[in-house]
Amino acid sequence: MTGTERAGRRIDTSKPHPARVYDWFLGGKDNYPVDEQLGEQITALDPGAPRTARANRWFMQRATRLVVRQAGIRQFLDIGTGIPTAPNLHQIAQSTAPDARIVYVDNDPIVLAHAEALLRGTPEGATEYLQADAREPLTILQQASRVLDFDRPVALSLIALLHFIPDADGAHELVSTLVDALAPGSCLVLSAMTADLEPEKVERGIAAYAAGGVTLVARTHAEVSSIFKGLEPTDPGIVSVSDWHPELAEGESPLGDGPISLYGGVAFKP
């Protein structure tokens, strides 16, 4: 599943990549000058951009804890994984449930190059990495079934993914295809960018990404909520990620004051 390709030879460093820019926002080292340049341009327009990236990571950690501890789910399908940044999803899940099984999915060669860090899980559980495009959900489901039992509940994690996929490119269809394959009791964990809270800053950020060749889509609360159609959101519903179950955090909040332009939520399949 992880492949043996020499990913480094296939990494395009001539243009920025969202995963590497995100890594730069988080203070990581797995990015290139072109990514740093775009990150600096975005931060000049929106000084809160790195804080938003940290907030998104913080949401993932809290959502994983809720899914494992309160819902008892032991299987995760994480699509749009990004460059490994500790603590990773499997570390959080397996710290509570050592038998948890996680499949990571991404199509960025640099993520493949660092996939080994995603595979250091517990001997009781399983962690695997699948090189695939999010726009090919049937391929993902077929290959992930080697590790995950889709007759049992699975947490489908789409963290900061869909704002890179416009509706015209099938964002809703790929989510519905994935959710339809899940057993009752499964859940969707999702965060997505919005311009509802800070419209001017977000629009400037979108323009900066576009200048770097990356398309971003900001969705309204109603549009993000529609992605959860047919599912039952857990309290407090679809809210800014900073407001979603902050009591589940371990350690001090990295956020400070001010809005976070990401909606997040966890919703269960009846």
Q: How is this structure best described in words?
A:
The protein contains nine helices and eight strands. The protein is globular, with a radius of gyration of 17 Å. Helix 1 packs across helix 2 (33-45), helix 2 runs antiparallel to helix 8 (199-211) and helix 3 packs parallel to helix 4. The model is unreliable at 1-9 (pLDDT under 50). It has helices at residues 18-25, 33-45, 49-69, 89-96, 109-113, 137-144, 171-180, 199-211, 221-227, and strands spanning 75-79, 101-106, 126-131, 155-159, 187-193, 232-233, 239-240, 262-268. The protein starts with 17 loop residues before the first helix and ends with a strand. It has a single domain (12-244, 258-268), classed as Rossmann fold (3-Layer(aba) Sandwich), CATH 3.40.50. With 270 residues, the chain is α/β, with parallel strands linked by helices. Strands 1, 2, 3, 4, 5, 6, 7 and 8 form an eight-stranded mixed beta sheet that branches. It comes from Streptomyces sp. R08. Keywords: Methyltransferase, Transferase. One of its GO terms (molecular function) is methyltransferase activity. It holds the Pfam family Methyltransf_19. This is SAM-dependent methyltransferase.
